[in-house]
Structure formats: structure tokens, C-alpha cells
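Researcher: First entry.
Model:
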Amino acid sequence: MRNLDMATLRSLVAIADAGGVTRAAGFLHLTQSAVSMQIKRLEDLLDVKLLDRRGRSVAFTAQGDQLLTYARRMVAMNDEVVTRMTVQEYSGTLRLGVPHDIVYPAVPQVLKQFNAAYPGIRILLESRHTQPLKEMFAKGECDVILTTETSLGSGGITLAQRRLNWIGAPGGAAWRQRPLSIAYGRVCSFRGLAVAALDAAEIDWQMLVETDNDSTIHATVSADLAVFTAIEGTEPQQLERIDHGGALPELPVQQINLYASDAAQSAPLQHLIALLSSKIAER
């Protein structure tokens, strides 16, 4: 019976979450060659190719994708067992910042799993737009933050890349009207992207709602009075992606990035980061 090595499985998961061997090496505090050797050991053990290295970027083979599903579960279970059996004394507070529009569905699951592993640690969840969260992180007011951006800043890792879509009422017609009525938060980072895209496409628009309250935006869009934008997979349940057939401009792909403080060497924060990376990458 051949046994899988947990370190090699952790490297496989890190490559998937970080988007490449080089970033995975930094995340794991290993050299790039060490991570590559671990993947080679896995491939030799299972006699399969896990990564397709022919292109400029690393891609998973079909067998690699299949193993990745098992690897995530095995690594998570390993960490939970080790934590439960060896670490019972952690206490304190961790401060997590997440943009309001990507809190669901991943973050509640992460908080539940983290609490099971570290019941003595309280997580303070700060939900704001990306720019205020980055300012808080720079001041040391958050231990780890997620952001939605079109590029990656210094010290961060990209957990996922998702499309930014136009969102409206189910079966609605507001997106057909000109000028196009849009609804946004005052400091929403998607607002500038949408306006720039509309201007480039020479589509007349008007800001029907400008608010700090997401409920106001969702109610206005639900009433088919305006449209807004959301990252794929984060649309409010009562709304839907607009199938506009090219009548509205394409929007830039968004990166969901993670930034962690130097305190990330602590076991609880490392565990929180691992859970966030896994759950965000799943969807």
C-alpha cells in the first residue's frame, strides 16, 4: 500500500490557490525547486502527470484536478486533527477584513470551521469596500484582508479570478433603457470600472442611486429601476446576471486577493488563511 505524503498534498493545494509554483513557494516558505520536487514525488508515486507545464503558466491535468479535490479535504482534515489534539490553549482576537459583496457564501463557512478548530479565538469581521480595507491593513487595523481588484498589490496572493457581470432584476428590462440607470455605493471600486466601460462604448447613463447602503441598491435593482455589477458567483439571490447579448460592454476580470500581516506566522492565522484560500478557490 502506497501512502501519500501530506507535505506534497499541501504543495499541490498551494499551487492551485496561489496560481503557480513560484507564488506557492513563497506561501509555503519553500524554494521553487523544493515545491517542484514535491509535485514530482507525487507524480512518481501515482504514476500520473498532475501539472501541464507546456505553456507559460502552470495548468492542472485532469488527474491533477481530481487529486486536488481529495488533497483539499485531506489537508483540511489533517490540520483539524493536529489542532484538536495538540493545540488547546490559543486565545485572543483576529481581525478579518472582507469586501461586503464577497462575504457570502464562503466567509460564514470559514468562520464556522475556524471556530471549531480554535474556539478560544474571536474573529472580528470588518466588512467594507476594498480601498478602506487596504487603508486599515496598512495601519495594522486588520490581520488579514480579502480584496477585489484588477491587479495584485505587493505582498498579496491571488486566490481566484472571476468575471464582473452586469446584474439586474429577473426578466427585467432596465438594461435596455437609455440613458442606462445604474446604482452604486459611493466608494464602490466597481463603479469606476462600469462607468469607464459605458463611456468607452458610448452608452449614455445616469446614476439613479448613490448610497452607502447595499440594501438600497438591491431594492432599486430588484424593482427593475436600475442595474449594477457583481463578481460572478456573488449575485444576491433575488437578482440575476443580465444576458444582454453584447448590448452592454464587457467588464474587466476581477482578482480576489489576500493580504496577511507579519503575524501570519502564528498557527491560528495560518489556519484562517488556509481556510480562506481553500473556500474562495472552490467556487
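Researcher: Second entry.
Model:
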Amino acid sequence: MYKQYFKQALQMLKESPFFGVITVLGTALAICMIMVMVIVFEIRNKGFKPELNRDRTLYVKDVAITRKNEEGSMNYSLVSGRVAKECFFTLKTPEAVSMQLSRAQTLVTSTDQARRMKCDLLRTDEGFWRIFDFEFLAGKPFLRSDVESNIKKAVICRRLALRIFGQADESVIGQTIWVARRPYVVSGIVEDVPALANGAYAHIWIPYPQADVDRLINEETLEGLIGSYRVLILARSSGDFDTVKAEVEQNVARFNNSLQALKIDLMKQPDTQMESRLRVWSNVVPDVPRMLGQYALVLIVLLLVPAMNLSGLTASRMQKRMGELGVRKAFGANRWTLIRQVLAENLAVTLLGGALGLLFSYVAVFLLKDWLLGSFELASLNSGLTLSAGMLIRPAIFLFAFLFCLLLNLLSAAIPAWNASSGNIVDSLNDK
């Protein structure tokens, strides 16, 4: 029966091509605008390789330092290695904890200086490789012993391996490269990381100096309290977030007790992926429910406006079909049967427009990616903004597209279908 409804809908589009084009394009553009927002939201907040664990990762970016028992100014800084050691590396609940130095640009050259590449460098530790799901083409990551011993090992991406060595396989492992005029031994090669993977992205990864972790604290100069690191915590599940945060608070309180005149404040951190994205100012906790409410309101407006326009087109079409509906009512069809027919026919057109709209949304995201996803930080990197299939092709996006098609169908066709099915049989037969 529903197959017949779909055939009737396609036949009506052929009989009235102008009406069909307006209806399909109106639906397609509505779905396109909505899906662009959904796709951008998914890319910014949901996991993709190598950041597959975003849903159970917590972040600490900033620390406030102030005097005990005094109201006054604060010093804001990134996390120091010593604070990370005392407050985060001792956590028992998480699966892994990592610390990474602020991303920097550096020059990587071959030993004979003949081949070189300007790269984005990330200094980190062994926990980094447990938090992110890198695809190793050859070799392996550096170990905890390498970090503690200040052994100069490096993991490089495919692009850098091809640039320096002309290949990206096992033959590169163990060879030496020069990073900022210092020799490093290649321990692993990974697949290139898109710049949108903010926590994992780099061209080359090396251990940070162990001295930063073991640095002594001087409360007068703030040495050991201010730093340039960011901490990442991988929970075993998102359900452990509250437990992890409670353990962090205990560690911070114990650390503050060891200080004489100062104390540190994490300002409600660790943050989730979304909270970390929305935290513009260090001391302002992002209001995630409010932000999501605004986002939902925009989606509703984008859905309602075209639905109202399409509802007028559907009502006009229903007026022309009053005779047909009158004949069906005369032969015993009840109101719900007629409404089901109209909704099914309109759904066929809506799904056609939805599929076209989803295609338009992908094209729009590709063409406008620098505007939609760009930022000052991304603009300063040595890689262009690229989109992978893993970011765009995912079940959630197709589910959202289908859901919006259903909602648009109900909003645009339900009222015209109800009005058309409630008319008098005689008036319907006379096209009134």
C-alpha cells in the first residue's frame, strides 16, 4: 500500500514539474541548513579517529593561583609539570592521564640537511598514546622510561616520513632526524592526523623534559606553579566523571595544604569535550545547557519557517485533489486512511528533498569549511583544514537527517491533510 503511495507521489511530481521542483528544493534547502549545523556540531564535539574517546576524556587547560585567606588578584596560567605530577598523575580512577606542552612550530631536517620540513611539534608522554587511537604504520610510541630518561625518541606522521626519507615503512624506524638542531631517533610512524583533532594533531611527537615534572616550587617567583601544559584524563566511562573530579579535588586540596602562602584553583575543571570547547575565559564556567538550548532554538526556527511555506504548497495541492479524496470517501475510506495516504505521499517527496539536502550539506561543509570550522589556532598551523570520511559519514548524521525529514513532513502536511479529509463528501466530489 505504501509503495503505491510513493508511486503516486512521484507521478504527481511528473504531472506538475514546477510544483515538484519548488517542493523538493524547498525541502532540500531546509534540510541542508539544519544538517550543516548538525555536521559542524558533530565534528567539534563527537569522536573521530584518532580522537575516538572524546566522550570519556576530560581536559584541564588553566590554573588560577592566589594567596591563601586573601581576596585579591589572581595569576592565570596553563598547568605546570609539577602541578600535573602532584594532582593528576597520582589519580587512581582514570584509565590514563597525559600531559602535553603547548603546540609549537619547529624545523625538522635530515641528517645531511638536504631535506627539511616546517612542522607542528607536540611534546607529550606515554599516556598520550593510550588516550588517542593512532594508526601506526611502523614502529611504536615512546615509553615511560624514555620520558623519564630524557631519551630523544620521536614519532612522526606519514607526511613527514615521506618528506625526509621518501618512504613511510619499517626501514625508517631507528633512523635519525634533526629537530630544532637536535638529533632524535624515529621510534614510530603514524597516519596523518587532521588539524581538527585539536588534542592529537601534530607532525611530530617527542617526550617533554622530565625536569619540568620534577621542578621545585618557589612560591615567591611562582616557579613550579605556572607552566605551559594541558592535562588530558581518560576515564574508563563517562559515568566515572564525577568520581574522577572528586578525586582531583582531593588531590588539589592536599597539594594546597603543602603550600605555605599560595593555593591553586582549577575553576571547576576538569572539563568535558564540550565544556572545554565553550570555555572562552579561564574563570568563567561555560553554561552548556544554555548553549544547547540556543542551538536547539535555532534548529527549530530553521525547521518551522520552511515547514510553514511547504504547508501552503501542500494545501494548494490538496485543493486540486478534493475530487479524488471525495471519491475515496464515497467508497468507504475514513479520515485516518486519507490522512495516512497524504502523509505517505508527502513523505516520499520529503525524503527525496532530504537526500538532496544532505548531499547539499556535505558540499556546503566542504566549500565553507574554513569559515564554518576555522579558528585563529587552526590558521597558525602548518597543515590545511581537511575533512575525513570518518568525520562526515556516521550513523548519527543520517539519523538526524531522517528525523528532520519526518518532522518536516508532519509539520508541512498534517494540517492540510486534516482539512482535506474533514470536508463534506458532496463538496469534495464537486471540488469545493
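Model: Note on the second entry: Residues 62-270 form one domain.
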